[in-house]
Each structure stands twice: as structure tokens, then as C-alpha cells.
Amino acid sequence: MGLFDFTTKLFGNKYDKDLKEINPVIDKIKAIYPSIKALSNDDLRQKTELFKKQIKEAKQELENDIKSLTEKAENSEVELQEKEDLYVQIDKLQKEIVSITEKKLEEILPEAFAVVKETASRFSQGNIIVTANDFDKDLAAEYSNIEIRGEQAIFHNKWIAAGNEIEWNMVHYDVQLIGGYVLHTGRIAEMQTGEGKTLSATLPVYLNALAEKGVHLVTVNDYLAKRDCEWMGPIYQFHGLTIDCIDRYQPNSEERRKAYLADITYGTNNEFGFDYLRDNMARRPQDLVQRPHNYAIVDEVDSVLIDDARTPLIISGPTPTGDKHEFGELKHKISSLVDVQKKFINTVLADAKKLINEGNDKEGGFKLLRAYRGLPKNKALIKYLSEDGVKTLLQKTENFYMQDQGKEMPKVDEDLYFVIDEQHNAIELTDKGIDHITSNSDDSNFFIMPDVGAEIAVLEKSNLSEKEKLVKKDELMRDYSIKSERIHSVNQLLKAYTLFEKDVEYVLMDNKVKIVDEQTGRIMDGRRYSDGLHQAIEAKENVKIEAATQTFATITLQNYFRMYNKLSGMTGTAETEAGEFWDIYELDVVVIPTNRPIQRNDKEDKVYKTAREKYNAVIEEIVELSKQGRPILVGTTSVEISELLSRLLKMKKIKHNVLNAKLHQKEADIVAEAGKDGNVTIATNMAGRGTDIKLSDEVKASGGLAIIGTERHDSRRVDRQLRGRAGRQGDPGSSQFFVSLEDNLMRLFGSDRIAKMMDRMGLEEGEVIQHSMITKSIERAQKKIEENNFGIRKRLLEYDDVMNAQRTVIYKKRKHALYGERLALDIDNMIYDTSEAIVNEYQTLQDFEGFKLEIIRFLSVDCPVEESEFKSLKSEELTTKIYQNAITNYKTKSEVISQKTYPVIKDVYENQSATYQNIVIPFTDGLKTLQVVTNLKEAFESEGGNIPLSIEKGVSLAIIDESWKENLRELDDLKQSVQNATYEQKDPLLIYKFESFNLFKQMIEKINKDIVSFLMKANLPEQTSVQQEKQQRQQKLETSREIDNLNSKRKVNKVSNNTRPISVEKETGRNEKVKITDGSEIKEIKWKKAKPLVDSGKWRRI
């Protein structure tokens, strides 16, 4: 007995522990099921109303408390501090309601699960007849499977799903009850392909929908969202629950809003995320579509929360300088550079071969390593590395030059034009490469970054005047910015030419570069590589280079899904990523037993030396299996390989179907045919995921579905998904992977032990090695990549976590402004914070004159204290005095505005109320004018009393949105700038966190001051007219998913080319002298005195 077996026996394994916890619940469901089975159809339906009543009663007392506290908080006479305390209590009670609801659901779970199972059972036996209610009548008008006859409603057991008529024939197995319980408890249920995940989800979906807070079922594509909604819908509708799918409707539409109000809402992960972002850009409460995030089940959870999590959701808009780039100008230089390197590498490789054949391994290995560092994807090099002992020699030479932190490696790179690190997807331009691309340029420093610190130090010591120094500094920073952008563009073009291949990573369709999903082989419409890489590929392929855009709103899927009160997921392949699910989402993975034992024969990998030998063996295997009459599913990792195999099969005259990125629209039809006798289907990775391949009895008798993998994927999970297509529900089947030493996985991460073993065995061409030890070695290589990819995703999340903390604060402020419920409290706090900021700033400097000016500028009130009080009072006392004076003035001002606007409102209401519902009133602070929307009837009935709140809402939203947009732009630039910290052995993330905090702090202060300043100065323009509110014309916005290329240095969503060595410009010190002018005279005074003059607009800095 091994150590692992002994410890497992002693402590038990996770699988057994999970089942030990779950089995008692399943026993309760089984025990109660006979009593549910005995109910009439009407009594079975009545159970749903009883469950809802129990849940309502459990939380009724707390909901009453919230109602009374809200009414009290909205009373204008309540003090600020008391109001804040009331809202804290309300938030606490809402959390308690979530907890109480969860406990009640746990109590009714056995009975609720039994109700769903019995409903499925009755549908499987035929039509169900019940007493008709109003809900049934409404459904009958819309759905053909529900019929009203007199007082009865007939629910037919046949209906349309995904365009096909289906007859319900499913009843929950015990393993599906286990899966349902795991999903309800907020975990991931790993259920093998064909085990009925969709049916299993009906149990927790029904149970949680009873709370009437909304249940979201998230899928990977709109086909599955619509299909599952239609397929499972009648089960829920029978019990009076509403169901809808958001992907049927346009964003921001009334139909989509209703879809979110349904008890159960289906949709794709992208649309759920984008709707959240759109809601946080809405200007009116009625434009919102989503409810608070209650409970979500994510189907194919590994695809959504792992694969798609690498790419943030982004809503972006045009930017003035978005079409300014140098990709077009620089691509000819880079194309020339790559050609020169290719010629050089061919010579180096020829020399290496000659030296190695002569027995000079030292010099030959050196040349071989140089060729590898120069062009690792060179086909001649890859072929040569598959020969006896060559790969081993390369690894031995590389290990020698990598020792002592690679201090000998510059000798290898010396004659190269650029160096490629394929494992980390990075490229570095050498001095020789820089010389080559600047050889035809007049500027020898075309790509040389200036040493900003040293240059500024020299300038400071020079005898130039201050004005001349300022001009020189501006030139220096402009030079740095241009060259930083240029070097970045060159780097991305080099990646585009050397690491990204057409028909592998992307395809050209409709004269556009479209990314291919490496997992499914589908075209990812709307997605672009980040960081300018997509523009570089467009330049390389001579298609239109799309303009860069500015980020208006963004979130990662990790942070979106972590907002739900409860989250769960289901998939056939999650166990290998269990660590990541727990680290990021705190989701536990529970492996659900299969209903029938798996009979699939998973064979050990077959390893060949060259790709040519491997593909020949694959074709021979297909021919052999076809003769047996078995259907064959061939999995590939790219479009290129799919088409290569298709050509080879055509030469053998074997009929087959191809499912890849170029043919993805035929997916459902091709998958439906894949299980037929003798059919051969070539599919890219997980294409067709979510659709079972069903087999006839004849096919089962001939051995079932045969899976052939043409290459091991970077992730074990994807290989398991491909294998899982065979062996559904105890069906026979087999899986066999074919691997060569030329495959990307084996070249980059494969153990050198495999290459050595094949060399020692002296394998001839076409001979294969097959052993469990080899398979395990390949899986270890996959683990290395999985760890690397997890690191990349976690790094992305760490950056987004910084933004998420800011986003939470801003969106909360925005929500208060949108609804206006807690806005009065926010405005009070802003006035107090502004007062405190002014006091802290000027009392420290003892600058009474500046203090008075700031009070007038921001609060529009006279200073309430004398100079002696200003110097003697404590800062808290002084702040309170200013705050109280400002509040009193603001309340008086609000009353005056109400009185001023009421006559105009009265006239419009009495003469045109039939025409107008909402009206727009202009308000100005003397500098800018904002259009404030208010309800005409409310304004008339309150005699203009609602106008101040409307102003507060309109002003707050406008200023928050503009400031947040600017902050996102700053964060984009900052994320790019901090990457330079790696050259100084500093962690870019730490600098990003520190600098972004300062940016956010400045933004909040600016928002507070700007809102307070406008409200204090707001007044009607001299000529005021109201007009009917018009639907705001939407700015042209784009939704996209950026694909982060590994080791990316910056985002493509930039606003300008203003790249700086640091992200935030150093603020001018308050006592630092500056020069200002009004056009007629020049003054040199301290910044604290100059700032009010500059802000007034009459003076400007020189």
C-alpha cells in the first residue's frame, strides 16, 4: 500500500466526504417523494404558492422594519448623522433578509426538489390537465403547447425548442438530485457529458426562484441560452413562474427590462456583464434593466469563469486621437527586419547542422541555440529538432548559457536582430536590430529613449532662462512620449510578424482580422487583442487599421460574478482548475458520480518524432475505424490543422464534415450528424460544446464513438472535454491522443526525458512510443502551462481589483444620484468634505486671504469668521461653522429657485400638460449650463419643490460620469506607464496601486468640489424657457472583449499618445513660484495665490 493510499484510507478523500454530506439530503427528498407523487395536478401546482407564502412570512417583519426606517430617513427634518445611521441599519437588515431567505430555502429544499422531479415525471407520461388560472390563459395566447378548454388548461408534453419539436422524456436520476443540491449550496457540480446538467439545474433554479429575487442562468452562447430557456421553460411555467431570455432582445429595450423582471432569466455571460455596465451609464431610473444580483448558475463554468475571464468587458467610444498611430509607417521597416533575420537564421541553422554532423557539438549547439532564440517557429528548425539527439543538445546548450542568471546569453544574442522568448510571448529588439531599422533614417536616435531624469538635471544646472527651460522640458517630454509609443508599436509589430499566424490565432474574414477562440474554434466577433497588437496584425495583413477607442466602462467577469449573493456552476471539466475556482471565487468543486459506469477506453498517448509521422498515423487510424463502422470525432487545436486533415482525408476519399471557426454557423447540424454510423467529424477543440452526440444501437454495438486527439492542448481540461464526448450515459467508446515532439506543447514545455528516451531507443521513422509514463510526463507539461495561465489571469484580476474598489464607490454614488433617495445625505457630506478640505489646506498655511477666496469660489458665501477666529479656532470648529453657513445658504437658495421656476411650470402645466410629461429646464453656474429633467406634474403639485432635487440629480450624474471617464483614461495610461518600473527592479502592480489611489483621491475631491460649486452657484439663465424632454441621442458606443496577449505592456483603449515616464504629473507646490499673465502684464507669485486667478479664467500660466 502506497503512502497516498494509506492517508486516503485513514482520513478519507474529498469525493467520499462530499457524498457523506450530501446523501442525507437526498434521502430526505426520496422520503418525501411518495407524498408528493400522491398529489393531484392542482395540488402539485398549489405547492409553489405555499412555498412562496412561507418565504414571505419568514422575512415579513424585517421588510416592515426597512419600510418604516426608509420613510423616517426620507423625512427632510431628520438630522444628517441620524439619517446616515438609518441607512446603515437598512443595509444591515437587507443582508439579514438574504440570510433568512437562504435558511428558509434550505428547509423547503427536499419538498421543492420532489415537486420538480414529480412535474418532470408527469410530463414524461403525457399531457397534464389542471384548472386554468389567469396566468395559464396569458401563456396559452403566446405558447402553442398550452391549451385552454373551458375551465381547464392542458399542458402538452411536446413543444418547440431551438426550432425543433421535442417530446419530454426526462426524469431526474439520483445523481441529478445530488448535482442540484450542490448547485443550490453555491458550489460547482462537475457532471460528465450526457449526465443531464441542464435537467439537474431545474431543481435549484425552481427553488431559488420562489424567493422572487430573480435567478440568472448563464450560458456560453446565445444558441444555448435560447434553447435551454425554451427546453426547460414549461416545467417552470406549469408552476406559475415567469421565464425569459435576454439574448432575444436589444440592449436597453423595454423587452429586455421585462426579461430581467422574470423569475428565471437565461442569457450569455457577455450580455449580463454588458447590461451591468450599461445600467451604470444610464441617466434615468427607467433606463435600468437589471435587478440586484441575487443568484446565478453558470453553465460550462470553466469556459466562462476561466477562459473568458482573461478578457475584460469594455464599453468604449470614439476618441479624438484614436486613429493616430505609426503602424502603417513602421510595418515596412519591421517586415524588412523580419526578412533579414529569416535569411540570417537560415544561414545559422545550416552552419549548425554542418558543425553537429562533423561532431563539433559545442559550436554546433551554440549556433543551434542562436537559431532557436532568433526564430523558434522556423519550420526547418522544428523539423531538425525532431532528429536524434538534436533537441537534447539544444536543451543542454541552453542550460549552459542560462546559468548564473543568463549572464552568458548576450553572446548568443549578439548577432541577432531581435530575440524571441516564445514561452513568455515576449520579443526584445537588439542593438543590431535598432541599427538596421534606423539605417535609412536621418535621426540616429529614432528609437533611443531619452534619460528624462539626467536631461532635466542638466537643464536645471544650465544658464537658460526659466521660460527657455520650460520649453526644453516640454520638448523632452514630447520626445519621450513619441519614442515610447514608437517602441511599443515596433514591439507589437514584431509579435504580429513572428508569433501570430493566420488561420491559427486569427482568420481574415470580410477584410477584417477576427480572433479564433482557442478553446472552441469559434470566431470571437467584436473582440480585439489589447495593447495595439490587433492594429499591428491589421497592418501586417494590409487591411484597414481600426482606430483606438476610449474606455467608458469596464469590468472583468471575475468581478462581475463575485457581485452575486450566491454563485454556482456546472461543467464536465472543472476538477483540474479547482484551485483557481477556490482562490478567485471561493467556489468548491464537487465531482458528481455518473448514473452508469463509464465504459470508454482511454488509451495511452501515441508519441511520434515528427508531425508528418503523427498525421499519417492519424489518417491510418481513421481509415481503420471507418471500416469498423464507428463514428469518429477528430479534435484539432487550430483551423490550419483542421484543413490539413481535411485535405489528407479527401486524398483518401473518406467522406467527412469539418467544424471550425470558418464553418461555425453549421455547428448544430454537424454535431447532430457526428454520432451516425461511419461518420467522420473534424472539430476544433470544444466546438459543439453543450450539444450531446447521441448514438444508435447499431453504433453502440460496433464500439461506440471513437475520439482522436491530434495534439495535446495546453490545458488538461480541454483534453478531458474532448474525451468526454464519448462514453455518454454508459455508452461504449474510446479515446486516443496522437502527439509529436514538434507540437507546441512538447517544444515549449515537454520534458527533455522523452526526447532522450526516443534517442536511446533509436526509433526509426514512423515508429511510435506509447506508455503510461509518457502520458504522465505530457500531463506534467500541461500543468506548467496551466500554472502560467493562472498567474496571468490572477495578475489581470489584481489590476482590476484596484479599479473595482474605485468602481464600487463611484457606482454607489451614481446610484444615489440616479434615484435621489440618499442624495441629500451625499450632498450634505460633500459640502462638509469641501469645507473641511478648504480649512485643512489654508489653516495650515495661515493664509486667511486665500481662505476667503476659496470660500467664495466654491461655496458662494461670505467668510463667516474673522481672521483672529480663523487662526485661533480648531479645524473641526472652523469646518462646522463654514458647513452650517453653507447649508443654510443652500437651503435658502433652493427655496428661491423653486419660487422662480414655479410660474413657468404652472403656465406650461395649465396650457400644455397633455403634451408634456417631463420637461427640461436649463441651469447655469455662470460658466457652463446643464439641462435638468423633471416631471411636470410633480413639479406643479409641489409648487417647484422637486426642482432642487432634480438639479442635484442632474448635476451629480453629469459631473460623476465625466470625472469617472477621465479617471479610466488616467488608469489606462497609468497601467502602461508603470510597466517601465520592471527595468528598475520594481513591482509595477505596487506602483499602480499607490498611484491609482492618489488619482482616485484627487478625483473624489474634484467631484465633491465641482458638484458643490455648481449647486451653490446654480441659477436660471436670464432668458429661461422649458421644453419637452427628448430621448437622449446615444453616443456611438462599442462593446468589446479585449484579448490580453501575454506579457502585454499596455491597453489599446487609450485616448492619446501622451505616454509619460510617470503616470501622474507632479503637482505644483503651494509655495512654489509660478509666472502668470493676463495678456498685458506678467506676475511671478506663489502658486497658492496664482491658482484662484488662473481658475477665474482671466489669467493663465506661462
What can you see in these coordinates?
It is a single chain. Residues 1-11, 1030-1034 and 1043-1067 have low confidence and may be disordered. α7 crosses α8, α13 (361-374) crosses α15 and α30 runs antiparallel to α36. The protein is an alpha/beta fold and 1102 residues long. β14 (506-509) and β15 (512-515) form a beta hairpin. The strands form nine sheets. Strands 8-9-7-10-18-6-19 form a seven-stranded parallel sheet, sandwiched between helices. Strands 20, 21, 22, 23, 24, 25 and 26 form a seven-stranded parallel sheet that branches.
List the helices and strands and how they pair.
Blueprint: H1 3-11, H2 14-37, H3 41-73, H4 80-125, E1 128-131, H5 134-142, E2 146-149, E3 152-155, E4 158-161, E5 164-167, H6 174-184, E6 188-190, H7 197-209, E7 215-219, H8 222-237, E8 243-245, H9 254-261, E9 264-268, H10 269-279, E10 295-299, H11 301-307, E11 313-318, H12 327-357, H13 361-374, H14 379-385, H15 390-406, H16 409-413, E12 418-421, E13 426-429, H17 431-438, H18 452-461, H19 466-498, E14 506-509, E15 512-515, E16 528-529, H20 533-540, E17 549-555, H21 557-561, E18 566-571, H22 578-585, E19 589-591, E20 601-602, E21 606-608, H23 611-627, E22 632-636, H24 639-651, E23 657-659, H25 667-673, E24 680-684, H26 697-701, E25 705-709, H27 716-723, E26 733-740, H28 744-749, H29 752-761, H30 772-819, H31 823-845, H32 848-859, H33 867-872, H34 875-912, E27 918-924, E28 929-935, H35 936-941, H36 947-977, H37 988-1017, E29 1027-1028, E30 1038-1043, E31 1073-1077, E32 1082-1086, H38 1087-1096, E33 1100-1101
Parallel strand pairs: 6-18, 6-19, 7-9, 7-10, 8-9, 10-18, 16-30, 20-26, 21-26, 22-24, 22-25, 23-24, 25-26
Antiparallel strand pairs: 1-3, 2-3, 4-5, 11-17, 11-30, 12-13, 14-15, 27-28, 27-29, 31-32, 31-33
